[in-house]
Design goal:
Elements (H helix, E strand, L loop, with lengths): L1 H24 L2 E7 L2 E2 L3 E3 L6 E2 L1 H13 L1 E7 L2 H9 L5 E2 L7 H4 L3 E2 L4 E3 L1 E6 L15 E5 L3 H7 L5 E5 L2 H9 L5 E5 H10 L4 E4 L6 E3 L2 E2 L4 H16 L2 H11 L3
Parallel strand pairs: 1-5, 1-6, 10-11, 10-12
Antiparallel strand pairs: 2-3, 3-4, 6-15, 7-15, 8-14, 9-12, 9-13
Helix pairs in contact: 2-8, 2-9
The structure holds glutamine.
Length: 250
């Protein structure tokens, strides 16, 4: 009887130890906010209702290398930036352009994608030939984005902001506004879906780098992300994601 209880206790102790080990071996989970209205970087898959895209694959690959699990939180673009700024979220990924203004509120990883702004008009428009013809025009963009900031820099252009780029492109196609200014890859996706209704005019007119935003109290996380990102660039994973989400989609 005594011997049996010793065995039971021993088994219990082993069990507790094993589960404790399992717990500590399990990677920490970090909250990463996004705005899943920016295909092909992040969008909600209609069938599965999951957030999918280039950025989702990238942050998961970074987490796998750096030893953390990722919990994706889908918030609006503006609230994502505010939430990373206040450290409500540990990080944010949403094709976020690294800018000096944003660097006052948050840390950024090294760049992972080069992008820029484009002017998009209706296919039948002939008077807007680029950024230089937007004075007196109503130009739509998503609130808080570098596209909206660029509209604000064009003398005489009227900015109309939207919660999502999708609404701006809808309004453009319906004739409510004259043009949209948005990131090049996103814009080419919309043009690709409605080539009889939309076209780009002029060249990409800004040079921007996307980076992962990090809570400014967590320089250690920024360092871990940068190390993993460097590995992912070196081992070809980043190139594969570009092929999968961007080249294949065009
Ligand atoms: N790259 C742009 C920015 O950072 C737009 C990003 C987005 O709309 N998700 O403002």
């Amino acid at each position: 009887m005594k011997r049996l209880s010793i065995v039971v206790v021993a088994l219990l102790v082993v069990g507790v130890l094993l589960s404790a080990c399992g717990g500590s071996a399990g990677a920490a989970k970090i909250k990463v906010a996004t705005d899943a209205t920016f295909p092909p970087f992040e969008t909600v898959d209609e069938a599965t209702k999951q957030v999918v895209g280039f950025d989702v694959d990238l942050i998961k690959a970074i987490g796998a290398k750096a030893g953390f699990e990722v919990e994706i939180i889908n918030s609006g673009f503006d609230s994502m930036l505010a939430g990373v700024g206040s450290c409500q979220y540990e990080a944010g990924i949403a094709g976020i352009t690294i800018t000096d203004e944003r660097k006052q509120q948050m840390l950024f990883s090294d760049p992972y994608f080069a992008a820029g702004q484009l002017v998009i008009v209706r296919k039948d428009n002939s008077d807007i030939v680029g950024r230089e013809s937007l004075s007196g025009k109503t130009v739509g963009s998503q609130i808080g984005t570098t596209g909206a900031i660029e509209v604000g820099k064009i003398a005489g252009a009227k900015l109309k902001t939207y919660d999502e780029f999708n609404q701006a492109f809808q309004d453009l196609m319906n004739g409510q506004i004259d043009a949209v200014i948005a990131d090049n890859v996103l814009s080419l996706g919309y043009i690709g879906k409605s080539p009889d209704k939309l076209k780009a005019v002029g060249d990409v007119f800004t040079g921007e780098d996307y980076g992962i935003a990090v809570c400014n109290k967590n320089a250690e996380l920024q360092t871990r992300i940068n190390k993993a990102l460097a590995d992912i660039k070196a081992d070809g994973t980043l190139d594969k994601l570009v092929q999968k989400w961007i080249v294949a989609a065009q």
